[in-house]
Amino acid sequence: MEYVALGKTGLQISRLSFGSWLTFGKQIDTSIAEDLMTLAYDNGINFFDNAEIYSRGMSEEVMGKILTKLGWSRDSYIVSSKVFFGSGGQLPTQKGLNRKHVFEACHQALKRLQVDYLDLYLCHRPDKATPIEETVWAMHHLIAQGKVLYWGTSEWSAQEIMEAHMFAKQNHLIGPVVEQPEYNLFTRHKIEVEFEQLYKTVGLGTTIWSPLASGILTGKYNDGFPTETRLGMDGLDWLKEKNFTEGKIQKAIALTKLSAEIGLSLPVLSLAWCLKNNNVSTVILGASKTSQLSENLKAISAQELLTTDVMERIELIMENKPRKPDY
After folding, report:
1. pLDDT of residue 235 exceeding 70
2. What's the predicted TM-score (pTM) here?
């Protein structure tokens, strides 16, 4: 396993991490979840990603039970939660980034995860109904109270992140240190263009999600739509419409041929491609089987096979390299 500092912090995070979205408390049972976390930890993964909305709190409950059962030393792993959507409640104070919900959600996450503090606490989406300064103050206070160590954002724009940083700096508060955006061979603009100045100015760290484009980059959809897959789950029609397109399938087929040529599986090539970007702090893996996770862990060593020539061939297949503005 490789480790890097998360953004401008001194926190050493594994370049591959493990997330529970759509699996814990929903797609797989607790025994499989435990096997996956154990396999991840034993292979050097030290970051486990979660959120209040995942399975409406059940994902955090499952992870909390596993963490307690396994008894890993608390100083050996990093655990996160995310706040915005709530855990299922529909009342006005049960969602958003207002001070009340940020505090309540933090306390609820601590209880579900059975930990004394969160290493990372992320604002899951920007909240247009709450001033950014209110959210910055709330996060600063949680850190001052020892309930959170670092805070960040997920799916925020560069402008919103900078507004939070500017307010924090002006008021001597602790600003966000990490952003969690989607990043994969199909979705590239934020990581490669929009955030470019943030890496230089505020030292933004990134914990990327959906590196395999919800399974499209595993090759399992190359020959049609199989049963019992993530994109076939109830309530995920939006994810299917976004990713299961003819254009993406054709590119996945071409990438499958290239990956086989250099001795890699398509998911390993796709993950290694993400890791080749030095602005990616950690790639969040999602798996429902230990065999999937074992295969994906090969991405660390596979980076050396993605030579300049291979990277150029990937670009020719994708034809989507973001154009950077002329500064």
Report:
1. no
2. 0.93
